[in-house]
Amino acid sequence: MVLPDYHVHTAYSPDSKMEPEEAIIAAISSGISEICFTEHMDLGHHMESFNRVPDFERIENSISQLRKKYPKINIGKGIEVGYISDTAKQTAAVLSGQNFDYVLLSTHCVDGIDCYVPESKRDRDKFTAYKRYLETVYDSVMDDNLTKYYDCISHIGYIAKCNHYEDNVFPYQLFPELFDEILSEVIKRGKGIEVNTSGINRAGHVLPHPSIIRRYRELGGRIITIGSDAHKPQNVGAYIKDAIDIIAQAGFQEITLFKNREPSFISIL
Ligand SMILES: [Zn+2]
Ligand SMILES: [Zn+2]
Question: Exposure check for the chain: N or C terminus, fewer CB within 10 A?
C-alpha cells in the first residue's frame, strides 16, 4: 500500500531542527513509502525568520544524497508557500526559477499576523476570526499571480489548530457558501487540496474537517494529497492511515502523488 507523507519540514525551515536524514529514518520506520519535503517560504511574514527564501541549493544537494542512500523510499522536493497578497508577485518570481515536485499554497497570516501567534486573535470572536481566515484563503486561490506555481491548497482550516478558542472545530456548516466558493475555484483552476493530519491533536480533526473533504468530492474534486506537517521525527507519518480512511469515507477511490508537479492517482481501495 502506498503511504505518502507529503508535508514535512526540516532544519531548512525556521521552525524545525529535524535533519532531513532523521525525517527519512522516521518515515521508513513508520512505513511511509513516499515523503515530500515542504520547507517554509513566507515572503512578507512579520517574523523575519520566515520572511526569507530557503537555501534551495543546499536542499537540492541534501535530497540528492538522501535519494542515493535510501533508494527504497521516494523522496520529493517540495515547498510550502505562505500566501501574503503584497508579496504574491515576488513569491511567483522565486517559484518560477525553481523546479519542484510539489508546491503547497498555505494561508498562515491573516491581516498581517500569523494565526499561530496569540496576538493574531486581537478582539475577534471565533466566527469573525475564522471568516477572515477563510476570506484570505479565497484571496489566495483567486490570486492570478500564483495560479501557475502551486499544486494544492494546504491545511484549509489552519486557524483551528492554533487553539485560540475553547471550541476549535471548523466544519463545512460554519461557512457553507464561502467553502463552496473556495472549493469550486480550486477545482476550476485544476488544483487540489491537502488533508493535513496535524489538526487531529490540536483542533480535534484533520484539516480540512472531514465534512469539507466530503463537500470537495461532491463538487467534483479529484486531486487530494496527505501530509503530517511534521517538524519533529516523532510526527513523520503520523495519522496517515487515518487520513486515507477519512478520504475513502468521503467518497474518494484514489489519492494523489506528484512528481515534477505532475499528478498521479493511486488507488486506496
Ligand atoms: Zn502551514
Ligand atoms: Zn507546514
Answer: C
